Amino acid sequence: MSEQALPKTHNLRIDGARLWSTILETAAFGATPAGGLNRLTLSPEDGQVRDWFRAACEAAGLEVRVDALGTQYALRRGRDMSLPPVACGSHLDTQPTGGRFDGVLGVLAGLEAMRSLNDAGIETEAPLLLVNWTNEEGSRFAPAMMASAAYAGEFTTDEILAKRDAAGITVAEALDAIGYRGDEPVGSQKIGAFVELHIEQGPILEAEGRTIGVVEGGQGIAWFDGSVTGFESHAGTTPMPRRRDALLGLCEIALAAERIALAHGPSAVATIGESVIGAPSRNVVPGRVAFSLDVRDPKSGTLDAVEAELRAALGEIGTRRRLDIDLTRIWRKEPVPFDPGLVAAVESAAESLGLSRRRMVSGAGHDACNLAAKVPAAMIFVPCKDGVSHNESESATQADCAAGADVLLHTLLTLARGPRP
Amino acid sequence: MSEQALPKTHNLRIDGARLWSTILETAAFGATPAGGLNRLTLSPEDGQVRDWFRAACEAAGLEVRVDALGTQYALRRGRDMSLPPVACGSHLDTQPTGGRFDGVLGVLAGLEAMRSLNDAGIETEAPLLLVNWTNEEGSRFAPAMMASAAYAGEFTTDEILAKRDAAGITVAEALDAIGYRGDEPVGSQKIGAFVELHIEQGPILEAEGRTIGVVEGGQGIAWFDGSVTGFESHAGTTPMPRRRDALLGLCEIALAAERIALAHGPSAVATIGESVIGAPSRNVVPGRVAFSLDVRDPKSGTLDAVEAELRAALGEIGTRRRLDIDLTRIWRKEPVPFDPGLVAAVESAAESLGLSRRRMVSGAGHDACNLAAKVPAAMIFVPCKDGVSHNESESATQADCAAGADVLLHTLLTLARGPRP
Lengths: 421, 421
Known about the structure:
Chains A, B: GO terms for molecular function: hydrolase activity. By secondary structure, chain A is an alpha+beta fold.
């Protein structure tokens, strides 16, 4: 087929109503009374939605294969099967009290894109691939995003198969129980590029009234454990200036972390999510407080700077308040930059569709962040209500889901060299 | 005996070595391996020390009676038995991991004063009374200081007899078990004045290098329960300015409470002893924090002012950080002023003995605070190491204990109209 004969696609849109009805249809698998989903990875409910997904893909003419960790790959043939497939997808597993959109949207929007291409009779140059990654959530088996990490070579298949849930069941046993231990070696599936549509799981798009987040990468993360040690003393007999109050030390640390993160804004965030007083009592000045600290930023250098400034603040607080303050970094994950070409493709697709948008980084981890270590990757975000996720009340509008799926479709068309727009 | 014939007493001192040896001797009853005491009220060990105390008092010529709540009264006759006795004392019960001085010093210093008067052949005009109050500590039966409260009319004897410990044993049963349910009606023992020597249980005297605390009264106390409610959100995806972090609200509240207490210094104290994040997680911005607040000051008006200023600060913090802050006062005890004449008598005694001293208030509750509602009362403090009490490591020096007992002796002599100094 010559270039001139290619059909134009600039008016092509996915079917928003059909996408919405598949979201509702699959929400029956693991539905909770509060309107959310409890579809832990490799559970019977996860098996049901996988069966549904395989059947839906096959009905759309896709060829479905399963790898040794249960990840489902649905291939739509292209004109040139020597080209690596252009992939999209996300995950169909959920948190135990999860919502209907986290992961689900990315998979079902990919399915909808395939159906829409079928309806329009469009063939792409490169093949397309739709992926449902096993265990993105990490609620049943740790770590989260384990199948995409294994795909990218971070773990061996055997390492992952041996992981156990709280009941002692291994990943291998759980895969066998639902019939999803496939025969494709992990990592053998060729992928030329990977694009993941996801709800933002944060408040930025909603607050700014924008529809599309053009995701430039995943943040770096540093986790710390800390403690403040002062001296336990009587709340009635110890004058204020003589106290060595560990809680007041923690309070200054938390406010310093906020101040430092704000100074590195708007991207940097710092959170003390856990703070526990040792032997707390209403009438005792706290002598010891343990705390956690989570610092994130898209730039490695900013993580370094926040940590250095915080340690300086801790030194000052400890000296002034006569407290012993310890801060130990227990984990650090470097930022993941997405492929600039893919990011530009996402942005162009949003622009050509006339959708309001902004560049942003992903605050949470996603399979696309793992994929980025091995293949060009990018993400598309759409707003979710109040930024709430990992919650049965998680919500997104039909219009935003459709807009995200349209951006996904047009990004795939660009990357797989579909007909000219 | 004429005024002229009265022996001079300005050189009279208690026997510090004898006082110290009785402290060590009674520390055998309920001794813990770590060098402290476990002598819960009305326990077998409390029965043993009560028996020792009765025998020691009788050996010193005192007449011992026991009231219906087990409080022991040891009377030393005066020349004019129509005068109400001038009393001293404290308590011989301890915390489960208590020290050797809390309460014990006040009782044994009173015994030493009686012995020293005997040695010197001194008779006072008014009789003297040495009291061992039942259950000052409150560790086994609540409330603390129950016998002195009943003496002052705050509870009926039957109310107290019906109180149960954690094992369901009543005060009445516990008294019977050690043979200390006496036949004197509670409150019938006449007391003309009450002076209690005690370790400070705080760091002020030690820090200032002073020997005697001339205690002007007990502080007022206000207890509050509070909560801060914001919005739980993802630590990675929620920009700093959009957060409603309940922990940061608590941090500002704690620092405001410190600032306000300092502004009402040196007397006012404010303590957040308990602070608990609801559903804490390392990567979740805290949505709710519950906390306790303890505010104390010797002046009722200062308690009011601290509360009012704190509520104003809470309003400002809540508005600025978009947090709902609740603060509920759950208990308030008004300050207890001691009798100015008795306080002056304590101060004069310390001055005449050439001891360094300062006026202060009691940060903790004591039997003398209950007595003050019914009879003129005052207290004498001596330093304890590092301000530590309610701990097996509680410590005081022999010299300070002797100095406190000397002040007690001379205060008793002044109040009971002993020989002129």
